[in-house]
């Protein structure tokens, strides 16, 4: 059999947000004929988020491009060993190696890098400072939208940040990486370093950490490139 373009896409969100933020990407991909599913991962623990993702992967009718934003990159790195996954796309995302977690990846920030305004844990959950949220997470979104995101934050479980990857899917699956060059949550040099390590096909875009919201067409375009660039026998 020859090659054909993958048509199934599964989107995984990161911390502090939910799956509704993918709407623009969903609409763009759907217009182009993709079948798109969105994981509502609870962000309580890595194990739980991987289970939620694998449940969606189990329901797919063929090979999948699995996409993660931010902490969602950890989830797809662990869940992406699922047999239905043919390619991985990291969107301003963490791409850990075996034994790594968000906690280990952010433990030693480079000098001068912006520090995300994460408040001290409350009962095992993290929030971002609401006043500082727009500048750090969503600087290129309309002020009203950024304020809504700040006020509708999903509690991010400390256990999710500490969840370590056991078998990185990028070691056996091709990957793509979109670096957001104006990101103030994950420093762009760290994004580039993780992308290089995974051997990803890298694209850059001038955008905030909320690139999937501010530039959905560009994110969808990279996902489509991954779908087209992954031959299936």
Automatic annotation (TrEMBL):
It holds the Pfam family Abhydrolase_6. This is Alpha/beta fold hydrolase. GO terms for molecular function: hydrolase activity. It comes from Dactylosporangium cerinum. InterPro entries: AB_hydrolase_1, AB_hydrolase_fold, Sec-Metab_Biosynth_Hydrolase. Residues 9-221 form the AB hydrolase-1 domain. Keywords: Hydrolase.
């Amino acid at each position: 059999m020859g090659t054909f373009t993958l048509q199934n896409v599964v989107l995984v969100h990161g911390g502090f947000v939910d799956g509704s933020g993918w709407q623009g990407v969903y609409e763009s991909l759907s217009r182009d004929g993709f079948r798109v599913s969105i994981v509502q991962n609870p962000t309580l623990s890595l194990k739980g988020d991987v289970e939620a993702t694998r449940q969606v992967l189990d329901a797919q009718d063929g090979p999948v491009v699995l996409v993660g934003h931010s902490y969602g990159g950890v989830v797809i790195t662990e869940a992406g060993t699922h047999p239905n996954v043919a390619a991985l796309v990291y969107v301003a995302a963490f791409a850990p190696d075996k034994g790594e977690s968000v906690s280990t990846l952010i433990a030693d920030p480079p000098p001068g890098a912006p520090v995300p305004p994460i408040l001290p844990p409350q009962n095992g959950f993290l929030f971002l400072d609401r006043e500082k949220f727009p500048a750090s997470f969503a600087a290129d979104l309309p002020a009203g939208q950024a304020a809504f995101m700040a006020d509708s934050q999903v509690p991010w479980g400390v256990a999710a940040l500490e969840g370590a990857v056991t078998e990185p899917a990028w070691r056996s699956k091709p990957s793509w990486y979109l670096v957001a060059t104006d990101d103030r949550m994950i420093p762009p040099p760290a994004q580039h370093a993780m992308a290089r390590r995974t051997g990803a096909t890298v694209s850059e875009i001038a955008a905030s950490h909320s690139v999937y919201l501010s530039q959905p067409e560009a994110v969808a375009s990279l996902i489509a490139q991954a779908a087209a660039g992954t031959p299936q026998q």
